[in-house]
Amino acid sequence: MHQILLVDDESYVIDDLEISFPWDQYRIEVIHKAYSGMQALSILEEQTVDIVITDISMPVMNGLELIRQIKAVKPNLPCILLTGYAEFEYAKEATKYGVVEYLLKPLDVEKLASCLEKTVLSIEEQIRRALSYEQAMNSFREHLPSLKDRLLNQLIEGNRYSEDVLNDKLGHYQLPFSAEDNVQLVLVRLEEHFTRYTTTSLQLFEYAVTNIACELFNTAFHTWHCRDHYDYLVFLLKPAGPGASEIDTSPETNHSEQITKQSKDLTHLSLQLHHNVNEYLKGGISVILSHGGRLQHDIRDMYEQALSALKKQVGNGTGYFLSLEESYRPVSIRSLHILYEPPTFNHLLETAQWEVFKERLHRIKIGYSALPEQTEEHLDEIQIVLLSAFHYIAHKNQALLSDLVGNEWVPRVPFRSVSQLTDWADNMLDRLRIKLEEQSFDEQHDVIHQIKTFVSANLHSLSLQSIADHVSLHPVYVSKLFKQFQGISLSEYILSVKMDLALYLLNHSQDKIYEISEKLGYANSQYFIKVFRDKFGMTPQEYREQ
Questions:
Q1: What's the CA gap between 436 and 433, in Å, rounded?
Q2: CA dihedral 505, 511, 515, 516 (to 10 degrees)
Q3: CA 467, CA 485: separation in Å to the nearest integer?
């Protein structure tokens, strides 16, 4: 049995559909309902949904945006789009989002039934294929390298897993590591010679360097590697144990001597890697060997120390080698990574995510308080980032920040505490929000007036795209804006205007029914008669005779 999610901001549509449609005939057992895009995404996170049926025209998040977000997470989830007549041409674009079908409102029950039958059969066929063990294993093997790469990237970027969860992942990905292993990290940057080539060629060089490194390191160490977001190569290493290296494991060899020998072996292999790349690929690399530590607890610090050392020095033509094993000292100065996490502050202001911005301010305050050393430079950094975002959104709206919030709110001296700074930013945000929403309201009100004027003058040849072109806005935004301001959809408004004109012409002109139909933009007079009857309970001719 299957589960379906119905999404429409007009609650009566999906409430009636839930009751009136024979879902059980199509093996649909559970029906979920959502009255907005955000509510639908929340349900999808918590429930196992097999089919989504959504209206295209909804406030805040329309049907196409909802489907786009669904497909980003669940690309195989079938989605059916409901569209009013005015959005029909635009709905055809939905095919690029992987929409199974789009159906016109008011909904034809027979078409919905046919569409559901095909969709359910397709789902069941996919389930049968997914049950194939060999196919599942092939898919896993195909994606295993990228899964390994992603997990190592997550660990060096500070993502934390419990010991059990991390060990489960390591075992599942067939990695010979455990959370408490003592490891070392090698960071490699390809220098100037390689960066002269195209992206494709550079990737080939990275692949070649990775192969050379693995051949060398695997003689004595287990190796796990990835490419980080700076395009550096990261190698995580731990001793391979008896039989995999020449390390003496006899009882007579004490532990400190063993560690020293392992470190010397790794230093030798790292130097050999540096030499081999220069020799065989005719280009230099810079190699940083980190201090040792435990995988789960120390990998982030190991990576940051190596990254810091790599960025502090510019490699010459042949690059350089540096070991942090002897010179490593714990550092107390840390970066506030949260300042630069996506979405950026600029993006939050652009998209009017005011509450998310405030929540980020709270997290900055917590992050600053957790720093081992809280410095004025950290406060300066926070202030610069936030003030830059405020200037950006003001200028984008063709105004000076000082004109929007007042000169007294633009700081001229540094803040002395994080609370003082975040309080200032919170107040700035509130003042900006009020000003920008007032400005936006006036502009939007003018757009609504332009839309109504255009509709009245062009009833004979109207489409959502022509209206959107007239006001130079996206069709989806036009629909959402009109519904937000008028309380009815644009298609409902157009229908209302057409029917008012129809009544007037029937009362005050001698035009024939088909002539009135053409003036209203209906190519088919029978369709006009049907729409009129649905609206007033009688045909145009019956109304005229009455």
A1: 5
A2: 10
A3: 16
| pTM, entire model | 0.40
Q: Are strands 79-83 and 51-55 parallel, antiparallel or unpaired?
A: parallel
| SS3 assignment, position 79 | strand
Helix axes 464-471, 475-486, angle to 10 degrees: 90
Looking at residue 328, its pLDDT comes to: 45
Nearest to 382 by CA among 397, 393, 394, 371: 371
CA 406 to chain centre: 35
- pLDDT class of 336 with cuts at 50, 70, 90: confident
Written as one string, the DSSP assignment of 378-399 is: HHHHHHHHHHHHHHHHHHHTTS
As a whole number, the mean pLDDT across the chain is 85
Among candidates 228, 253, 239, 124, which has minimal Cα distance to 177? 239
Lowest-confidence segment of 11-15, 481-485, 524-528 by average pLDDT: 481-485
- DSSP category for residue 318: T
CA–CA separation, 393 vs 439, rounded Å?
Answer: 13
pLDDT in tens, 35-54: 999 999 999 999 999 999 99
Quickly state the pLDDT bin for 249 (edges 50, 70, 90): very low
CA nearest to 492, candidates 534, 525, 529, 524: 534
Bridging pattern class, strands 221-227 and 101-104 = unpaired
What the block records as the tokens of 415 is 């803040």
Token duo for residue 370: 């957790």
- The DSSP 8-state label assigned to residue 187 in this structure reads E
